[in-house]
Design a protein that fits this description.
Blueprint (H helix, E strand, L loop, with lengths): L4 E4 L2 H6 L4 H14 L4 E4 L2 H19 L13 H10 L6 H11 L2 H6 L2 H5 L6 H11 L16
Parallel strand pairs: 1-2
Helix pairs in contact: 4-5
């Protein structure tokens, strides 16, 4: 594991020190840009301790392969269902709405065959095949029209 630099104290603490602003900035640039060491800020020893614990927890989570999600999680069943459907290849908000309306649930949409999927307005044969490829157990790479690897 690589190191982390924790700078503890307030801006008032730095102002009372004998270091110039340029000197501090130069040091921070060297440490982050040239040495690649991340810098964290803390205002007190208690906050430093909490920061170290939190960092260790995050490192453990990251090491186990659990990556943090970006953005917000949808609230409510319908929004969650739409979000799940939008993760399918070629499916955006409008197509997700159409899939949910046609099949009634994510489960039924995932179980639908390519022919059933392609009957949904806005979902053509190519998108239907890509969806079936994504939800099936077949592990061969998806090859669309002209041998394209994906949508």
């Amino acid at each position: 594991m690589r190191g982390i630099l924790i700078i503890e104290g307030t801006s008032a603490d730095l102002a009372r020190s004998a270091m110039s602003r340029e000197g501090i900035q130069g040091s921070l640039i060297a440490v982050t840009v040239f040495f690649g060491v991340p810098i964290l800020r803390s205002m007190s020893p208690d906050e430093t301790a909490r920061l170290m614990i939190y960092t260790a927890r995050q490192a453990r989570t990251f090491a186990t392969g659990a990556l943090p999600r970006r953005g917000r999680r949808p609230r409510g069943k319908r929004k969650m269902q739409l979000a799940i459907l939008q993760e399918l290849p070629g499916v955006g908000p409008e197509r997700a709405e159409r899939l949910l309306a046609a099949f009634g649930s994510v489960e039924q949409a995932m179980a639908a065959g390519a022919e059933e999927l392609s009957c949904i307005p806005g979902i053509g044969t190519r998108t239907a095949r890509a969806i079936r490829w994504a939800v099936s157990e077949d592990r061969t790479p998806y090859r669309g029209k002209n041998g394209d690897p994906a949508l």
